[in-house]
Write a structure and sequence with these properties.
- The structure holds two protein chains of two kinds.
- By secondary structure, chain A is mainly alpha-helical.
- By secondary structure, chain B is an all-alpha fold.
- Helices cover 81% and strands 0% of the residues of chain B.
- Chain B is built from one helix and no strands.
- Chain B is rod-shaped.
- Classes of the chains: A mainly alpha, B mainly alpha.
Chain lengths: 244, 52
């Protein structure tokens, strides 16, 4: 409990800036190593799938980015709840900083899914439960950013975007579990899951796992950079307000 | 070195190409905005300090 309480000190922007500065370079190196390691391993050193042929190589991009697309929304919900309960400014700014990263992960997941879908399903897009839920999740990401842009007062913006974030959780949950809720549509069940039995062979699973770790680290790195940027923007606004 | 991607070579390369463009583009945009914000903060702090 004492250790958990010690974590709250990093909600102080000055302490967060000092700690994050030390983490940026090691995290960047680790991120590159994991992403390149996972993708090179998957692309060059794994066999083709007996049914999907070489398109299975898209798996190492599609699954990690799709996992991160929903995972980032859950992180934003956690940060929003911290904002509601403890009013720590860094948590609201971290949620704001995470949203554009969520959009990029969702776009990469949807683009790779569409490209993969054409030879496998015969179409780039279908109104399948999981695909539709991802489309709605993308709209929620854009709506979340638009709401931040629309409100000038930071506290009000933090409150309202936190509410939107919590409401949008329904679609993040549906995006992740749609294939379990509705046993229909083109999309297959989860390939990599901690809850159910693994649906892919080890030869495909391990490079994808390294790639997933890499994309998670990429998210952390981008989150640190973008949160630092948001803190600096606030500082600029405060300085300019004081100067006028 | 390049693996034989067979009849789906275009599909696989397109998926990797689109992902690389999106991720590298976003990474570069983030780095550029962060740099501009850092410079703007330095300028704002210098302006405040220079005021009597």
């Amino acid at each position: 409990m004492k250790r958990l309480n010690a974590l709250w000190q990093y909600a102080n922007p000055a302490k967060f800036m000092a700690l994050s500065e030390k983490l940026l370079w090691p995290l960047a190196v680790l991120t590159l190593a994991c992403i390149l390691g996972g993708l090179i391993w998957g692309f060059f050193f794994t066999p083709d799938d007996f049914r999907q042929g070489s398109t299975v190589k898209i798996f190492y991009l599609h699954v990690p980015t799709a996992t991160m697309a929903t995972g980032i929304w859950f992180m934003m919900v956690a940060a929003s709840l911290v904002w509601f309960i403890r009013r720590h400014p860094v948590s609201a700014l971290a949620a704001k900083a995470a949203a554009p990263i969520g959009i990029i992960m969702t776009l990469v997941a949807m683009a790779t899914g569409a490209i993969w879908g054409k030879p496998m399903w015969g179409t780039y897009w279908a109104w399948d439960p999981r695909l539709t839920a991802f489309m709605i999740l993308l709209v929620f990401y854009f709506g979340y950013i638009a709401l931040w842009q629309a409100i000038e007062d930071r506290e009000t913006a933090s409150d309202l975007t936190s509410i939107l974030c919590i409401v949008g959780t329904v679609f993040a949950v549906i995006s992740r579990y749609a294939v379990n809720f509705w046993n229909q549509g083109l999309h297959q069940g989860a390939s990599m899951s901690v809850e159910s039995e693994r649906a892919v062979a080890d030869v495909f699973f391990y490079p994808a796992l390294v790639s997933l770790v890499g994309f998670f680290l990429l998210f952390l790195w981008l989150l640190l950079v973008r949160t630092r940027m948001e803190i600096r923007r606030q500082r600029i606004a405060a300085l300019l307000a004081r100067g006028t | 070195m390049m693996p034989d991607l067979g009849q789906h070579a275009d599909t696989v390369l397109l998926a990797y190409g689109v992902s690389a463009i999106l991720l590298l583009g976003f990474g570069f945009a983030t780095w550029w905005s962060a740099k501009k914000t850092r410079d703007a903060l330095k300028a704002a702090e210098a302006l405040i300090k220079s005021e009597p």
